[in-house]
Structures are given as C-alpha cells and as structure tokens.
C-alpha cells in the first residue's frame, strides 16, 4: 500500500485475504491510522464531508493539478475530492458541461492514471451480495477484497481461518468505500454505547457480525438493499 | 479543555465548541486519523455531558446545529438530541441517510437500525 495512503494501516501485512493479486492498490483489509492530515489542505467550505450538495448547487469541481502533488497526503486528498464531487453530480449532469470537462481533465493528467480506478470505482452502483462475492474472485484495480465479518477481530475471538476466509465472507468493493467502512468500524460511536463497532462486536456471535457487516455494506452504498 | 473549564462556558459557547470538535472529526474520517477521532469523540461527549447537567437539560440547544454546513456536525447533533427531541432528531438522521453523503449517511442509517433494534437507547 502506498505510503501516506489511508490503506497503509497497521494490518496491511496481514495477508490471507483471498487475493492472488500483487497490486498494492487492489486490495487490503488495512485499517488506516496514519499521519495523513489532509484537512489543512481544504478550504473551510470545501471539506469532503461538507453538506454542500444538500439541495444546493454542487459548485465547481476541484482543480486538477498539472503535476503530481509532492506528498501522498495531497494526492489522496485530491482523489477523495474528485470522487466525492463526481458522486454528488446527477445523472443529467454527466451528459455534458462541467462533469464532462472534469473527466477529460482527469484523463489528461498523466500522473493520475494509477489513481483513476479509485475515483471511478467509488461511483459504482450498489450490487447484490452474490455479485459482490463473485467479484471477489476477480481482483481489480480500484477495489479491495473485504471481509464482511472483520478478519482480525474474528480471529482474536476464536473464529477459524476457514470460516473467516470462506468465500461467503469475501466481497470485492470499491477501495474508497472500503476505507470509509474500515473507518466506521474503527471509531467510537454513540449508538454502540460509545464503543467503536469493532469493539462492540467483541464476543458477539458470527451471525451478529454478519448482520452488522451487511448493514454497513448496504448503508455505505455497496450492497443493494 | 477540562470539564471544569467547560462549566464556565455559556450554552452558546458550548455549541460553538461542539461544532468545532465535529468539524475536526470529519477531517479525520478522510485522513485515517482514527485515534484522533476517538479523542475528539471523548471531547464531544464531555460537551454533551455539560449541556445535559445544565438546568432544563440544554442538549436541546443542539437542535440549532441541524442546519450547520458540515454534515458531521448535523449527524452528531442529531444523535445527541434523540433523548430530548426524538422526533426532530430522528427526522434529521433520516434526511442525512437519504442525502447519501458518506460517511455520515452510512452512520445515520446504522443509528436508525440500532434505535429500531433497541441496541441504542438514548438517555
């Protein structure tokens, strides 16, 4: 996983994720917790999670740098902004105008070539569970193999490797969505009693872990309801 | 800021601090800085507790943040007003879910599930 990438977390070296690919961009169940601090690069009204597309004009797309930013932090900050801006556009808007111009600008930036799969995969429509599981047999750039039931905490709770890595537990999902879901599992949450979902699931049954895992895939726009 | 310091703040100042903490939370969600998020979460809970012990339970003041431009501020304000203004708070969570702006939409949706399943009982 590239340095500075939120996927380059503490579990990057775990392996055993069912992949036959060597591409560092393709997959990892890594949980990010690094020093990337892109916030400083955003204008106050241009935060990735801002509410600017809530019934309001989307605003102009992020400017595509001519050259690759010096730091990976800045690279991934741009990747996020590009993906989120495109995700906020409507189908009608994709027919031309600023969206088309922005996509052309992305395609023209040679340095961005390796990152485009991350941006485009974020725009995938939700799929059925069967399709996501089938996709796991076919690793692709811009996607990760994701364990519906998190592998590390399940192993720590005594579930077998065979169970954890069973094809039924493996899905291929867009990398940026994977990072968001990992983040959700990792962070404290008021509706889990102030625990992170990962900690909440400690000691819980396999079925409860599957239920939460599928709900997360659904709610983060990966799995069809 | 220590809880003793929070007690010296007005409700308006507590809201300002709450919003600032949530804006910082949002930044960490895209940076992988989850340890920082968790520290900010604790700070947010301290502000919530300070509002809660004020006369009349001033958590309802968080309703004023439902039109904040940052989605994370709206999300956390909605969760923390469920105990005092359940209808408005639930409506806010449903709107955040419907806007499909991640990661807040996913978290709002999961909060609604946890409410319905009784995993989350606001107090």
Intertermini distance of chain A: 31 Å
Largest sheet strand order of chain A:
1-2
Largest sheet of chain B: none
Query: Most extensive interface: pair and counts?
Result: A-B, 49 and 44 residues
* Topology, number of strands of chain A: 2
Helix content of chain A: 25-40%
Span from first to last CA of chain B? 24 Å
- Overall, the morphology of chain B is globular
How confident is the prediction overall: mean pLDDT of chain A?
Answer: 79
Radius of gyration of chain B: 14 Å
Helix proportion range of chain B: 55-70%
- The helix count of chain A comes to 9
Can you characterise this structure?
The complex is a heterodimer of chains A (225) and B (123). Chain A has 225 residues and is mainly alpha-helical. Chain A has helices spanning 72-87, 97-108, 116-121, 129-135, 151-156, 161-164, 175-186, 197-200, 206-219, and strands at residues 143-147, 170-174. The longest helix of chain A is centred in the middle third of the chain and has 16 residues, at 72-87. The two termini of chain A are 31 Å apart. The model of chain A is unreliable at 1-47 and 49-53 (pLDDT under 50). Chain B is an all-alpha fold. Helix content of chain B is 67%, strand content 0%. Chain B has helices spanning 3-6, 11-29, 34-53, 71-81, 86-99, 104-117. In chain B, α2 packs antiparallel against α3 (34-53), α4 (71-81) runs antiparallel to α5 and α4 (71-81) runs parallel beside α6. The longest helix of chain B has 20 residues, at 34-53. The radius of gyration of chain B is 14 Å and the shape is globular. The chains are: A mainly alpha (225), B mainly alpha (123). At the A-B interface, α1, α7 and α9 of A face α2, α3, α4 and α6 of B.
